[in-house]
UniProtKB/TrEMBL annotation:
Record SMART domains: HTH_LUXR (SM00421)
Pfam families tied to this protein: GerE
Domain HTH luxR-type: residue ranges: 122-187
Organism: Amycolatopsis coloradensis
Single annotated GO MF: DNA binding
Protein name: Helix-turn-helix transcriptional regulator
Keywords of the record: DNA-binding, Transcription, Transcription regulation
Gene Ontology BP, a term: regulation of DNA-templated transcription
InterPro entries in the cross-refs: Sig_transdc_resp-reg_C-effctor (IPR016032), Tscrpt_reg_LuxR_C (IPR000792), WH-like_DNA-bd_sf (IPR036388)
Keyword Coiled coil part of the UniProt annotation: no
Amino acid sequence: MADLLEARASVKVIDGRARGETEVVVAAFDRLSPDAITELRGAAAAFGRPIVLVTDGIEKGGLAVAVECRVVAILPRSAATDNRVADSVRLAASGRVSQPSDLLARLAEHAERLHREILEPSEPAGAGLSSREIDVLRLMADGFGTQEIAAELSYSERTVKNVIYAVTDRLRLRNRSHAVAYAIREGVI
């Protein structure tokens, strides 16, 4: 990148140790991997300046990290000509860089997904249990064995075992006691 930019008279490439003179940081990676993200965060902390990122691939969550690290322009490596990189650096230095619409759309999609998964309340954990499953769990909590539950609900023992297995497997519970404790904690029984 330094060789590419030094060919442009309008851009001055300085040594990375000259932090006081740095107006824009150019970071280039094959892909924005976890190691590259670590380096990007280090550059953001060390320089505190806008970053022009040149990369071909951004892994899941990388776009949000890039924005967090003050990345103001992202160029694909295949399109990183001396003109495009230099123009991005000049615009970043002037504060007039605008993100490409496809990147903004991806960032908005990422933010929406985070909001849905983390911030919005999800349905109660026990809401997915059927009335049959709740009846079996209630009788288990009352101390009934498989045979007694089957007799009480007029099911076969095999049906009761299948219901218990289905609940413990779907909810990733360890055993019957764990299933009963879960149902009580969630207010299902």
